[in-house]
Batch of 4 targets.
Target 1
Amino acid sequence: MSANWRVSVDPHRCIGAGICAGTAPQHFQLVEGLSTPLAETVPPADPVIDAAESCPVEAITVHDSSDQRLIAPEP
Amino acid sequence: MTDSRQVTARPYPFAAPDRLHLDPHYAQLRRDQPLSRVQMPFGEEAWLATRHEDVRVVLGDARFSRALSVGRDEPRTTPRQQDLGMLAMDPPDHTRLRRLVAKAFTARRVELLRARAQQIADELVDELVKAGPPADLVEQFATPLPIQVICELLGVPFADRHNFHTWSEAIVSTTSLSGDQIQSYLENLWGYIGELVAVRRREPIDDLLGAMVRARDENEDRLTEEELVQLAAGLLAAGHETTVTQIPNFVYVLLEHPAELARLRADPGLVPSAVEELVRYVPLGAASAFPRYATEDIELGGVLVRAGEPVLPSVGSANRDGEVFTDPDRLDLGRDPNPHVGFGHGAHHCIGAQLARMELQVAIHTLVTRLPGLRLAVPEPELTWKSGLLVRGLAALPVTW
C-alpha cells in the first residue's frame, strides 16, 4: 500500500491553460482563472501524474506525502 | 429554457473572411444571443458559443467531448471529415498520446531553443539586408524560421521542407485542395515520416522523433505505429503552418497600427506582452472549428444544450468579449491582464503554445529592432490573402525598410 500524494499548484507559474482541469477534473479546477487542486492530499491516481506531466509550465508538483519524494513531473 | 428546437439556424461562417477583420455578427451575438444555432457548409446543425465565459466552458469542461465527433456528421467547412488524431480524442486516450510529447514543449524546454531561434532569425535578416529591399516577408522570413526550429526539434531534415510544407497544407485546407489532394498529401506526409521512423529503428537518434520511436518500442501499448506516425506528422505540420501564418499577420497588424508599432520600437521590452495581445487580437481561425459534443444536458449561455448536441466555440469572438477585455477592439500592446484563449483552453490547449510564443517573440523582436524602417512595399489593398484554409493569412507580404 503506497502512501498518499501531496498535490500542489504554483500560482505564480500557472498560466490557466486549463489542461489539468480538462484532463483530470476530479483533481483540479480553475478558480479565478488559475488551477487549484480539489484536495491537497490524494490516494495515488494516474490522472494526477498525467496532469503534472502535461502542464506546459510545470506548475503542478506531486510529492509522496510520507517522505516528500518528488513523484511528478519528471525532471 | 430555450433549446435547439426553438431556434432557427443561421448559415455559418457568416461571410468569407475579410483579411483579419472579425465579422460584426459576433459582437451582436455576444450581446443578444450568446449561444445561437448555426448551420455550417457541411455536417449537422450546431450551437455557436461567442462569449469568453461560455467558450472556456466548452473548451475546458470535460462534459464536452471531442471523441463523440467520431461517427457523427461533424459541422465543418471541409467537404470530407478528416481523421484528426489527438484532436478527436478525450482523456484518458488523448492524455496517453499527448504525454508522450508534452515534455518537449514545456516552457523550460522551449527556452533552451530560444538562442538557436534567435540565431536563425538573425541570419534570415542578415540575408534580407544583404540583398536589399524589397522582400517578401512570408517567403524569406516567416516561413523558414518556424520550419527550421520544428525540424531541429523533431529531427526532420530542413532540406526536405519544400515537400512537407506543400503536404502540410492538407492539415489546414478547407477548400484550397480537393478531397483527393488532401488525402494524397496526407499519405505523402505519413509515408515520409514513416521513413524517418524506420531510420531511427536502425540507429537511435537523440531527437523528439527518436524519443517517440523509443517510447513505442519500449512499450507497444503506449501507442500504435499509425498513432506514432500521425502524431509526428501532426506536430510537423501544426508546428509550422500556424506560426508561419501568424508572423506575417502580426507584422501586418503592427504596420496598420503605427502608434502601437512606435511604442514597441521605443520599448522592445514590450515584446512578450505585445505577442500575447496580437494572439488575442488576430482571429487566426477563418471560422470556429472542432465542435465539442455535450455528454449530458448542460445549461450554457441561457439555453439548454442537450446531450449529444455539438457546440462550436468561437475563440475569435471570446477574445473580443468586452466583459473580459477593456476596449476589446483596440490593440493595446501593454494589455495586462490578458486572459485570451488564442491557444485554446482545456485538455486540447495548443501543445505548441510555448514554442509558438517563443518563436513569435523572437520574430517580432528581431524585425522591430533590426529593421526599424519596416513598412509595406505595396499599397495595403494590393496585398493578397490566402483562402480555402482553416486559418487567415497572407499569401505574400512585400515589405521595404
Note: The mean pLDDT of chain B is 96.
Target 2
Amino acid sequence: MATITVERSFWQALPKPKAESGFWSWVTTVDHKRIGILYFWTSIVFFLIGGVEALLMRLQLAGPNQTIIGPDLFNQLFTMHATTMIFLAIMPLTASFFNYFIPLLIGARDVAFPKLNAFSYWMFLLGGIFLNSSWFLGGPSDAGWFGYPNYSLKEYNPGLGVDFWIIGLLLTGIGTLVSGFNFIVTILNMRAPGMSLMRLPMFAWTTMVTSFLIVFSFPVITVALLLSLFDRLFGTLLFDIFAGSDLTVYHHLFWVFGHPEVYIIVLPAMGIVSEILPVFSRKPLFGYSVMVFSTMLIGFVGFGVWSHHLFTVGMGPVVNTVFALATMIIAVPTGIKMFNWIGTLYGGRIRFTAAMMYALGFLALFLIGGLTGVMLSAAPSNAQIHHTYFVVGHFHYVMIGGALFSLIAAIHYWGPKMFGRMLDERLGKIGFWTLFVGFNMTFFPMNILGVLGMPRRIYTYAAGMGFETWNAISTVGALIMGLSILITLYNLLTSLRRGEPAPADPWDGRTLEWTIPSPVPEYNFARIPHVSSRDELWVRKHPQLAHGAVAETAAAEEAPEEAIVMPGGSYMPLLVALGLFVGSYGLLYYMPVFWGGIAVSLLGLVGWALEGDNLRIVRPGGSH
Amino acid sequence: MSQASVTAAGRLAGHGEAAHAHHHPTSLGIPNQKLATWLFIASESMFFASLITTYMVFRYRSVVGPHPDEVVNIPLTTVSTFILLMSSLTMALGVSAAHRGEMRAVGKYLALTILGGLGFLVIQFYEWWHLAHDFGLTWRTNIFGSVFYILTGFHKAHVIFGMLWLSVIAISSFRGTLRKEHAVNVDVAGLYWHFVDVVWIVIFTLVFLLTEAGV
Amino acid sequence: MEKAHQVQPTTRDYLKVGFWLFVLTVLEVAAIYIEALRPALAAVLVGLSVLKFLLVAMFFMHLKYDSRIYTGFFAFGMILAVLIGLAVTVIIL
C-alpha cells in the first residue's frame, strides 16, 4: 500500500495538507462532518439570496400595475429564485444532513469515498458561484428554471445569461451525481456489524432511494442542458423548428429529470420526519417495513409520471390518461406514509419541542401539497389551472411545507449534535408559529388566485380582476416568513455562541448518533458499534425491551481502540473542481482558458489517483 | 508509518480510495470502487439513452439533406467496430492478468487496448472528415448532422477519456509501481472501457445498420 | 460472499468470446444484404446486437462471475433507459 511503499513517485512526493485547524484545514478537509458543515452554511447563504429574490417578486406583486421592478428583472428573479432554491439551497441542505449524519446513523467512520465527497461540495459551491456571478456579468437567465427552448436559444435570448445558467447547473450537477454514487456505496457497504438493511434508520433509507433517483435522473438533464448549450455556443440546429426540430424532446428530457427531482427533494424530508416523530412520541416508527417499501415505490413510480407536466402540449388522450393514472398512483404510497406517521403519533407521549412542531407542521402542510398535486394530476382540470398560481401554490406546499419545514426541524433536532450547543426552544417555537402563519398566508391565497385565473410568471396584473386582496395578503405573509427565517437564523447564530452545551443524547434519542459526544469527535465512534436492533440506542437504554441478546454487545464497546487511522486532507478535489470552474468561464469568454481548465482538472485527477493516502492516526484515549 | 498503524488502517472498514480496500471487510463483501463504478455505468446508460432517443426522434426530420440513408458507410464502420471489440478483448485479458498478479503484463495488454482505441478513433475521425468533405454534412447543415455529430462525438469523448485513464495505469505498470493490490483499479477501468464498447454496439446497430437496412 | 473470485474465465474463454463477437458482427453486416431477411431485418439486427451486448457484459465485464448486485444495478439502469427512451420516442413520433 501507498504509505509503506519505499520508492516515492513524483505524485506521492507532492505536498500534502497537514493543517488540523484554520483555513487550509477546511479547504482540504475530507471529513464528512466538516463537509456537512460547509454544505450547511453555504446552502444557508444561497437560501437567503433566494429568499431576497422571492421577497422582491412579492413586493412587485403586492398591488396591481406596479413597476417596482420591471418585467425583465422579474423574469430573471423567478428564474434565479427557483434555480437557487432547488439546486443551491434545499438540495445542498439535505446533502448537509446526508453528509453529517449518514455515517453516524449506520455506524461508520466516514463515507465510502471521502475525497469524492469533498469534490462534490466544491462543485456545488463553485457551480453556485458561477451561476450567481451572471448577476454581475450581463444579467442572469430569464428563461425559467426549466430553460425551455426555443426561448432559451441565442436568437431569442442573446447575452450570456442562459449560458451561465446551463453551465452552472452542469457544474453543480456533477457534484450532485458524484455524491449520489458516494452515498449509495456508503449505505450499502459501510454499515456497522449487525446493521442489516432492514435495521437502517428511515433517513438512511430515504437517502439511498434519493441517491438512486439522482443517479438515474441527473444524466438526463445533463443531456438536455448540453443539447441546448450546443445550440447556443456552436450553432447546431437541435431546437431550431425551422430545421425540423420538435421542442417537446427537450420538454420530455427535462421532466424525465424534473419529476424525480421533486422526490429527490421530498424523500429526505420524509426521512427526517420519520426520525423525529418516533423520538418525540417515545414510540417506534409505525410500520417500518411498509415505510421502506413505500419509499422505494415512490422512487420507482416517480420515473413514470414525467409527462404530467406536458398535459397541455397535445400528446393526445391516451398518453394523458396513462400519465394521469400513474401520477395518481403515487398518492397511494404517500398516503400510506402519512397514515404511518399518524400511527406513530397515536398513543405516544408527545413532547412539543420546536423540532417536533416543525415535523407536525410538515404533516399538515405536505398533505395540502399532496392533495393539490392529485388535483393537478387530473388531465382535464389540469388544462384549466395549468400555468396559473394554483401550480405555484401547490409546489410551494411541497417545497416549503414539505421540504423546508422538515429541514428546519432537522436543524433544531440535529443542530445540537453538529454544533455542540442547544438551540433556544422558545425562539424555535416563535420561529415555527411565524413561519406556519406566514407560509399559509403567502401560499394558500395562491391556490385561490390560480382558480380565479391569475397566470404565473407575469410581472403584474390589472386592477379590478379580483386579484388585489389575495395578492396583498400573500405579500404580507411573505414578509412574515422572512421575519421567521431571521428569527431562526438569529437563534442559530446566538445559540452557537451562548447556547447550553449539548449532552450526547439531549432528546432521549433512539439511534446511533446519540451514543457519541456532541459535537462528534473526528473518528465518530471510538469503537465501531455492534447493532442488534432497529432502535439501537433505545434498546440499550431499555434492555428489558430487547428480546434477548443485546446488553453484552454494548459492554464490549467500552474500551476504545488505541489507534484509529483516518484519511487525511487533499488538495486534489478542490484543484479538479477549480479547473472545471475556471474552464467554464473560458468556454464563454476565451477558449484557451477552457482547455487549460480541462487540463488542470485532468492533471488533478491523476494526482488524486496517484498521490497516496495521507493517512493520519488519531488516538481516542488522549494525545495524538 | 509504522506496521501497527497499517493494521489499524485495516479497521477503517473499506476506506474506498485506498488501493487496498479490496481486502477490507465491507458490508456486502464487495469492493467500494466496483460498486461505485457499476452505479456510474448504470447512470451513464441513462446519459446515452437520452442521446440515442434524441437521435432516433430527430434523424429523419431534416428539411434539407443529406439524410442518414444517403451517407452511412457500413464497411468502414464495421472495421472500426471490429477494432473496438478487439480492444475490449485485450482489456479483458489485461484485467485477467491483474487478478493473477502479473502486473507487468497488464501494461502490455493495456497498451494494445489503447492502440485499439486509437485505431477506432482514427477511422471514426476519418469518417467525420469524409462526411463533411464529400457530403457537406456538418453539425450546422441540418438537424441530422447536429444530432449525429453530437451522439458520436460524446462517444468519442468517452473513448478518449478511457484511453487517458488506461494510459495512467499502463505507465504505472511499466514503471513497476502497479501492485497486486491495485488489481481492482485495473478492474474498474476495464468495466468503463467495456461499457464504452457496449454503447458502440448499440450505436452501430441503431445508427448505422438499421439505417442501411432502411428501417 | 467472496464467491466473485472463485471461478475466473481463462484466456481461452476470452478468446472464444472475442471470436463470437467477430462472427456476430459479420452476421449483422451480412444480414443487411440478404433479401429474404428484409421483412424481419430490424428484429434480426436488434437481436444480434443484444447477443453481442450480453457477451461483453457477461464475460468481459464479469457479470456472470460477480456479485448479483452489479447485474442488478446495470439491468435496472438499462431497463429504465430503454423503457423511457421507447416511451419518449413513441409519444413524440
Note: Chain A has 18 helices and two strands.
Target 3
Amino acid sequence: MSAPMPRAIEPIVLPDWLRSALSQPASTRIAPSDQQMMSSEQFLAWGLPTARDEEWRWTSLRPIARLAIADAKGEQAAPADDAPHLPHALVIRLVGGQLQPLPKNVPAGLTLTPLSHAHEIDRAAAFQPSAQGRNDALLALNTACATEGFVLDIAANTVITAPIVLEWLDNNTRSNHSQTRVLIRVGANSSATVLETTHAPLQSTHWRNAVSVIEQGANSQLTQISLGLAGDARLLTDRSFVHLARDARYRSINIQLGGQLTRREIDVNISESGAHCDLLGLMMPRGKQVMDTHTRITHGAPHTTSNEQYQIIADDAGRGIFKGRILVAEDAQKIEAYQNSRNLLLSNTAEIDTKPELEIYADDVKCSHGATIGRLDDEALYYLQSRGISRSNARKLLITGFAQEIIDALPYPELVEQMSALMRAHLSDAP
Amino acid sequence: MSLLEIKNLHANIGEKIILRGINLSVNAGEVHAIMGPNGSGKSTLCQVLGGRDGFEVTEGSVEFDGLNLLDMETEDRANAGLLLGFQHPVEIPGVKNIYLLKESLNAQRKARGLGELDTFAFMKQVRELVKSMQMDDAFLHRGVNAGFSGGEKKRNEILQMLLLQPKLALLDETDSGLDIDALKIVSEGINRLRGSDRGIVLVTHYQRLLSYVEPDFVHILYKGQIIKSGDKSLALQLEAEGYEDILKAAS
C-alpha cells in the first residue's frame, strides 16, 4: 500500500462580510490611521491562518469563514443569563462593543475611557503589539477593524478588592462579529481582579475577536479571569499581551466550558527582575467544541518566575489544545519556570493535543515541564464503586475532582461555588 | 443461613488458574482469619468477592446474605453490606475524603430506601470517627489517600468501614506495613465493629494482628484452596512452625 498523500491545505477564502468590515470608513475605527492601513493590507495579503501555519496546526478557523453574517442589524434579544453574580462586583457592560454607562460604585483610582476618546498616547499603547506574520493575522485584523474598546486605568497605590467584571454582550439576533481592543494598566503597588465573560443570544452565532494589552507597573498585582460559559453559538478568539515590570505579579485563570470555538493566546513578557506569572486553565470541550490555548512566556530578566497549570477534559468529539512556550533569554539567569499540562480523554472520538516548547538560552535556570493525557483511572473507579458509589457517579466524582483543582484556584468563594455548579451542569447536560 | 457461603469457588486471571475450589462459610458474629503464603490466592479471593474486572469465575457460587453475590455489580455488593478493605488503598487526589464518605453513605442509604443524611448529623459522626482513628480533621478536606502514609491509608479504610457499618467486612492485609501504634488503632477499630450481627474476614500474612483481633476461626489458604482450618491456636502454630510443616502435614 502506498503512503497516504499529504493532505493539501486549501487557503481560507475570505467571506464578503470580512472584506466589507475592512473597507469601513477609517473614522469609525479606533486604531491610529497608519496602523489601520498597514494592518488591513497585511491581513488581506495573509488571509486567515490555516494548518500550514505553525501556531494554527490544530485549530481551524474555517468555522469563522462559514459564518453567515449579514449587514443589517437584527432584533435585540436578552443574552443567556449565565454570568456569575458576585456581590460588590463592579460590572462594566459592553453591548455590541459599546461601553454602557458606568455603575455608580466606581472606586477611586479607577478610570475607564472609551478608546475612541482616549489620549493619543494611550491609543498608541493599546495598539502597540504588531503582527509579525500569518500566525498573527487575527491581531492584524483586530488592529485594522477594531471599532470599540476602552482603557481601564488603575492608578498607582490603589487596591481594588471587588472584582471588576467585563461583560461583553452581543444581543443582536442575527449572526454578528466584533473586533474589540482593551488596554488595562495597573499602576505601581496596585492590585485588581478583572473577570471577563462573553454572552450572546442562542438563536444566532457571534464571533468576537479580542485583543487586550496589559501593562503592570512595579510591584503590582493583577488577576485576569476569563470564563467561557454555555452556548455553542459563540466563537471567541482572544489574545492578551501582558507586560510585567519589576516585582509585578500576574495571574491568569482561564476556564472554558462553552463555545463552539475558543482560542486564547496569552503572551507574557517578564522583562524585569522579581516579576512572576501564574497561568492556570481548565478547558472542557464536548460535543464538537474546540478549545485551544496557546501561552508564550518570555523570561527577559534574571530572577523571574512562572508557573503554568493547564488541564483539558475532552468528551464526545470535543477537541482540546494546549501549547505552552517558554523562552528564557540569554542573560535571564536564576529564573524558575514550571509548566504542567494534565489531560483527561473521556471518549474515543475526543482529541487532545498538548505541546510544551522550551527555548532556553541562559545556563543557570530551573525549568520543568510535564504533559500527560490519560483516561479515568480504572483502579480509582473500582475503589469508589467498592464504597457503594455507582459507576456513573464515580466517573462524575473523578471528573469533577480533576476539574475542581483549577476552579478552586479562583478568588471569591461565590465564584468558586458558581463555577463549580456550572461545571457540574456542563458535565451532565447532553451536548 | 450463613452470612457468606462460598462453595467450590474457582477463578482465573487470563489463562492462569488462581482459585481451585474454595469452600468457606461465615456466620454473623464470627471473625475469620485467612492466612497463607504469597501467591496462595488471598488477594484474588478478596477481589473476586469485591467484583473487580479481570477475574473469571469458572465454577462455584458465592451467596451473601441470601443474594447471589457473583451476579452483582461492585457498588451493589457494597450497598448490600459487603465492605472490602484494600491492601493498597487507591490515591484519588481530586476527590476529597469528605465527598467520598458522603457519597458512599448516601448511596447506601438510598439502596436501603432511606433519605440523605442530614449534613449536621453526618459531620458530627464523621468528626467523632476521625478522632477515634487519631486522625486530623484536615484530612477530610484532603484528596482520598493522596500523599497519605501507609498507616494513614489503612486507618482511612477502617474509618470508612466504621461509617458504613457493613454486615461483612473483608479486610485484605489491612495490617501490612503498619507500625505498632497504627496496628493498635486499626485493631481497636476492627474490634469496635465486632458484633453478633456482623461478620469479619481478616486476610493476613502475619499472626501479629490476630493478637489484637482474636479470630474465632483460622483458615490456611494454599494454592487456591483452604487446606486447613482451626481455631486461633492454628495461627500460633503457624507462627511457631512456619508454613512448611503445616503444608507437609496437610498433604
Note: Chain A is about 20% helix and 40% strand.
Target 4
Amino acid sequence: MAYTVPRPKLTFAEKIYLPSIVAGLAITWKHLKRMLTGQTKVVMQYPEEKWDAHMPEHYRGAPTLVTDEHGRERCVACQLCEFICPPRAIRITPGELPTESEFSKVEKYPAGFEIDMIRCIYCGMCEEVCPEQAIFLRKDYAITGTSRAEMLHDKTKLYEMGGVFDGLIHKWNPDK
Amino acid sequence: MVNVQIDGTWLQFPKGTKVIEACSQAQKFVPRYCYHPKLSTPGNCRMCLVEIGMPKMSPDRQPVLGPDGKPEIAWIPRPQISCAQEVSEGMGVRTDSAMVRECRQGVMEFLLINHPLDCPICDQAGECRLQEFSVEYGQGQSRFLERKVKKPKNVELGPRVTLDAERCVLCSRCIRFMKEVAKDDVLGFVDRGSFSTIACHPERTLDSNYSLNTVDICPVGALTSTDFRFKMRVWFLKETRTIDVNDGLGCNITVGARENKVHRVTPRENNDVNGVWIPDSHRLNFKYLTAPERITEPQVKGQAVDWRSAVAIAADLIRSIPSSAAAVIGSARMTNEELFLCKNLIQTLGAGDRHDVVPRIGEPDGILIPADRNPNTTGAVALGVAAPEPGSRLASIAAGVRSGQIRLLVCFEDATLLGLTESELARCTIIATGILPNATTRQAAVLFPSSGSFEKRGSMINIQNRLQRLNRAVQAPGQCRDDWEILRDLAVALGSSQKPSTLEEVFAKMASEHPAFAGLNLGKIGDLGIPLAGISAAPATATLS
C-alpha cells in the first residue's frame, strides 16, 4: 500500500535558504573571534599537558586488583571475571590459602592472575561482575609496552596499580 | 495404573510411583534436597512440599464426581512432602499453588539461615541446588540479624573428601549412600538443633572406594572432592559423555575438561550398567594423561623420528623376519575397531595362533568392580585377537621368546606382564605402542605414541555383552595417534589396499565381517550403549549388585 510522506510546509525564508547560511556564518565568525582573542584554547600539548584532572568518576581505565584496609587481597579466585570477559583477556590460576594464613577463613586466593592488556577492551564487565569488590577499572589509560610480555599484567603489577581501597564491604569478617 | 490429577490435568501412573516422580514425569518439577531415586526416603529436607488431596467420598463411600465426570478432590489443608508418598487412585496434586510457593520460600529461608553464602569460593557454585532453588523459589535477602552458627570447615572426612559443615543442609544423602550402597556405614549426624553436623565415626575415616559419590549426590557444597577442590570452576568444563575403561563393566562417565586438560570425571546415569555411581579408583585415574614422562613422539631405537619413517621402518622390520617368528601381544584395553585392525595385522604377519591379550584379574568388590579389570575382554575374544581362553597362549609366546623361536613381537601391552625380563625382551625385535614408558617401550625397536581412553573414539563390549561408545574428551598431546590409525598406517605400509580414513569406515568394515555388529554403527550405539546378541560373554565375568 502506498504511503504518502507528509512534507513540512516551508515558509518563504526557509525556501530561499539564505537566512540559515547567514546564521551559520555568524556562529563561525563568533568562534573565530574567540580564538583570535585567546578566549578559547583548542590544542592541548599532550603528554606535557594532561586532562587527567577532568576525568569523570566513572572513567574506565585499566583494570586493577585492590587490597583492603586489612591488608587482604580481596580476590578469591572465583573466576567470574574470567568467565564474563568478552575478549578473554583474564587468566586466573586458583590456589588454596594455607591454614596458618591470617585470612584462612577465605580458603581460596588467586595463585596467578593475568590480564592481557592487548586483549582488554576496557568494558568494565569484570568490575561489574566481581562479587568481592576486588577488581576495579582505574584511571590509567596510557598502557603501553614494547613487547607482548610487557603488556601481560601479572598479579604483582595489578596490585601495584590498584593499591589499597578503603571502605569496601567486610564480607569475610571472622566474627560473623 | 492409577489416575492422578497434577495441577489440574488427569494423568495415569503405575501403582507405587512416588508423587515427586509422578510430578517430574508430568513436567512439573518439584524441588528436592534429600530425595534421591536410588536411596531410601527420609523426607527430612521439606523442600518438596506440595498440596495433596484425596477424592471426596459420598456417605456410601463412592467418589463424588464433578461436572466433568472426574472425581472431586478434597484438598488436605496442610502441605505434604511429595517424596515419601505414593500415588493413589483419584489423588490430586498441586505443585504451584500459593501455599506451595509460600512453603518453598519458607523452607529456603530456613535452609539459608546459617549458610555462609561463600559461593565465590565454593566448588559447587554453578551446579548447586541451593543456588538454583534460591533463585527459583527463595527470596532476595535474608531477614536473619543474629549471629550465624559456626561449624567446622575444611574437615578432612577421608582421603578424598573434604567437608564444609556450614554449607550442609543436613539432607543425609551421603549418610544413606554410605549405608545403603557402599555398605560402609561411617557417616552420621552429631549434635542437635542448629548445631547438628555431619561427622564420621570417630575411629574411622570416609575411605571407602565409593566415597566420592557422596560428593556427586551432595546437593550443596558441603562435601567436595579434595582432588578437584579449587582446581576449576565447573562452568568452564566441557563435558564429554564416554565410558570408563578401568574394568570390564565400563561405567558410564562424563569427563569435564577445559583447554585440553581433564579436571574431573563424574558418573553418568545408566541403570543397565553402573546406576549413577563409580568407584573412586576409576574416577581419579586420569592423571597419567598429563604425566611428564608421557611418550609423545614416534621413536626408532630410542631416537625420535617422524611418523612416516617410523611406520616405514616398522614395515621393513616386519618384512625382514619370517612369519613363523612373529607374535602379537594384543590388549583387551583396545577398542573393537583397533582389535579388528589388530586381527588383520595378525593375519598379514602370519602369526598363526601366536597372539593373545594379557588378562587382568582382580578381586571383585561386590558393588561395581568385577573380577575382569580389562574393559574389552569380550571384544578381544569376539574379534579373535585374544585366545578363546584369554591369556592361555601367553606362556607359549613367552617360551618362544626365551628359546629364540619368536624374534618379532608386536606389543600393545607391556610384555613384562608375560613374565619376560627386560634382557630377554632385548633379544627380539619389538614394535610397540605406548602411552607411558615401561620395559617394553624401552626395548622397542619402533615405538608409536598412542592415545589414552579419553583421547580417542571407539567402541567396547563390557562383561554384560553391552556395546558402549568412547568419545574424545581431549586431544592427545604431541604426535600421539589412536591405535587404529597406527594399525592402519602399518597395514598400508605392508601393502594393504584398504585405507580407511575415518573410524566410521573401520566400524563399517568390521560390521560387514562380524555378524554381531551387523547393522550397527557408532551413532546407533548412543550414549547408553546397546546389548549385543550373538556374542558369547568373556570367561571372567563378575556379579553386579
Note: The two ends of chain B are 29 Å apart (CA to CA).
